[in-house]
Write a structure and sequence with these properties.
This protein has 20 helices and 21 strands. By secondary structure, it is α/β, with parallel strands linked by helices. β6 (133-137), α5 and β7 (168-170) form a beta-alpha-beta unit.
């Protein structure tokens, strides 16, 4: 059986993680191993609920079903999830490698962020003779962010260049924090250079500086870190550090397969001195090649974005999972995914609702973990759509699906809304999720659609409950007056159409007051409920039963003559007699009954018909009183 590797990484479409994944996949293919990439797409500044929902995907794999695991802990931007994951990996006792961040008890492969960042700062000091150098940090809770910041401080100090607090801005790796850093620094004047802890912030800063009319590097020098794909496309091209991410991925697989070697491996980085610091462009491609690459990427991106906009509208307002699967088919066709699987949690847990009608949708129970069993309501494989029943979520995919003759890789992404866990989707052998953040929007659209379905189900269920409350007596669960007259009109219309007859039975419980007085109102309520159930059992399904008052019931139905009405009255009386034969009873069932039969022409006023039956009932009740 082919070996399987689990690769756990946050935001695999980000350039850094994508290149590492490429290295993992390259070496795994050479070694004929399958790779399962568990990933999600969460920015540093997203809400806690979104992070919880997204990083549930890291809890999905059962590591005992894998031959090894590779993890990029610093890409999992939710500390509780990252810590739980590390604990779970260590507990599994399978071979494991951490990329970048050192984790106790796990092999490590990484670079020296410190040495690489220091090299950039010293280049500015030695080669460009700069001293007024500012710095923009990444997230300092991570090892790499702190190491890069410390390298800047040490380089400046070793060259006798003082640094004040106003020369440091604390960013979070995205472009917007780069723009904000420029605005912050310019309040105190223009520095000679700004060193950024990653390329994303540096590119954001270059955009803002160019908006303000500054020339790079003539007016200010900018450097980044990571050698993101865009760093070559920038004008001017960005001075940065090539982290050799693909080699990191390859080395991680090598270390996983040969645990007898050193537990830690370090890859040598390469500084790329380009136009943004005033050096000659060190790009690996010609400008024509870069322009062509950029043009192709833009065209692919625009086409995919158009499809996603259409998808978002198409999936809005759906009420059933089956509708969602039907709509998804055309978007699977439009993507480059040759194999796709949508795996949903147990719907009895996904769409479970509290019976409390006063609770709103936010107070309803939600699915916060992957259920033991999941199902595949839609898959696309070898050009054919289909579905698959329940299987263990720990398998990720059913064994008969994932056990293939040829080596492959799977990208497993969460389907969630805030912290609600709806399931996950799997693409096989497709670069879609690896190369584009649009895969994130794909999963968001599906998650939003499922959340809308959940809300529709709740609204429909609440409507049913409200309709029930409006129509039915809460104590006995037979029709109340409003429900009776609403339902009776349909029956009246049928009787008039068929030109048949109608009957009304009016029943008044005997002895309820003495039961209430002697045994209590709870027993009295049980008396009323028992009579209501007895009447429902005796009355055919096509007839209506109403609680007319406290101890009064009405039965209304169609008939050809009086015989049907008399049989129903007989069944009610016989049922009471059978119940009363129980020697353990604390009270006897008894009722006075009146009944009338009417032609179709007499049905204009139901209240008058009920009053007529009521009068017949009182004749019987008076006879009973006279006999006492």
């Amino acid at each position: 059986m082919r070996k399987r590797i689990a690769f756990l990484v946050g935001a695999v479409s980000f350039d850094n993680q994508s290149r590492v994944a490429a290295g993992v996949l390259k070496r795994a293919a050479e070694m004929d191993m399958d790779v399962y990439i568990f990933t999600c797409f969460v920015n540093y500044d997203e809400s806690e609920e979104n992070k919880i929902g997204a990083f549930h995907i890291m809890d999905l794999p059962d590591f005992h079903k894998f031959d090894g695991v590779i993890v990029m802990k610093n890409s999992i931007q939710h500390e509780p999830s990252a810590n739980l994951l590390m604990k779970k990996i260590r507990k599994s006792h399978i071979p494991a490698v951490s990329i970048d961040e050192e984790v106790k008890g796990i092999h490590n492969v990484g670079i020296s962020d410190y040495d690489s960042q220091k090299c950039i700062v010293e280049h500015l000091i030695h080669e460009h003779h700069l001293t007024n150098i500012n710095y923009v940090c990444g997230i300092l809770q991570g090892k790499e962010g702190m190491a890069r910041y410390q390298a800047y401080r040490d380089a400046m100090q070793e060259h006798g260049i003082p640094v004040c607090d106003s020369q440091v801005y604390y960013g979070n790796y995205n472009r917007e924090s780069g723009r904000k850093a420029v605005d912050y620094f310019l309040k105190a004047g223009v520095p000679e250079a700004i060193v950024f802890a990653n390329d994303g912030m540096a590119i954001g800063a270059m955009e803002r500086l160019q908006q303000y009319g500054y020339k790079i590097p003539e007016d200010i020098v900018i450097t980044g870190f990571d050698n993101d794909e865009l760093s070559e496309f920038c004008v001017p091209s960005l001075t940065t550090v090539d982290r050799m991410q693909e080699q990191l991925g390859e080395a991680a697989v090598d270390l996983l397969l040969d645990p007898q070697t050193d537990s830690c491996a370090q890859i040598t980085t390469r500084a790329l001195y380009r136009e943004s610091c005033g050096c000659m462009d060190q790009t690996s491609k010609t400008k024509e090649d870069l322009r062509m690459d950029y043009q192709n990427k833009c065209l692919i991106y625009e086409e995919a974005l158009d499809a996603l906009k259409s998808m978002e509208l198409d999936l809005t307002g759906l009420e059933r999972v089956e509708e969602l699967c039907l709509r998804l088919k055309k978007y699977v066709h439009r993507s480059d995914m040759k194999h796709f699987y949508l795996c949903l949690c147990d719907e009895s847990e996904l769409f479970a609702f509290d019976d409390n009608i006063y609770a709103n949708i936010r107070e309803q129970p939600i699915c916060e973990r992957y259920t033991k069993k999941v199902r595949i309501p839609i898959y696309y494989r070898d050009g054919v759509f289909g579905s698959y029943g329940k299987f263990s979520s720990r398998e990720v995919l059913p064994p008969e699906i994932r056990e293939k003759a040829e080596q492959t890789f799977y990208v497993v992404m969460p389907i969630y809304y805030q912290k609600i866990c709806y399931g996950y989707c799997v693409s096989e052998g497709s670069p879609f999720a690896l190369k584009s953040e649009l895969a994130y929007l794909w999963t968001v659209n599906i998650g939003m659609a499922l959340e809308n379905i959940r809300k529709w189900k709740w609204i429909n269920q609440m409507n049913e409950k409200m309709n029930h409350l409006w129509k039915y007596d809460m104590l006995t669960q037979v029709l109340n007056r409003a429900g009776f007259f609403y339902s009776a009109q349909l029956l009246v219309d049928r009787i008039e159409t068929e030109d048949s007859m109608a009957f009304v039975i009016f029943l008044d419980i005997d002895g309820l007051k003495s039961v209430n007085d002697g045994l209590g109102h709870e027993v009295g309520d049980a008396f009323i409920c028992e009579m209501a159930e007895l009447i429902k059992q005796a009355v055919p399904k096509d007839c209506l039963v109403m609680r007319y008052g406290g101890d009064e019931f009405v039965v209304f139905g169609s008939c050809e003559n009086q015989q049907r009405m008399r049989r129903i009255v007989y069944k009610i009386r016989a049922a009471m007699e059978r119940k009363n034969q129980n020697p353990q009873r604390t009270y006897l069932l008894s009722a006075s009954i009146g009944s009338t039969v009417h032609t179709a022409e007499e049905l204009e006023n139901l209240n008058q018909l009920i009053e007529a039956a009521d009068k017949q009932m009182y004749k019987e009740k008076r006879k009973k009183h006279a006999q006492k």
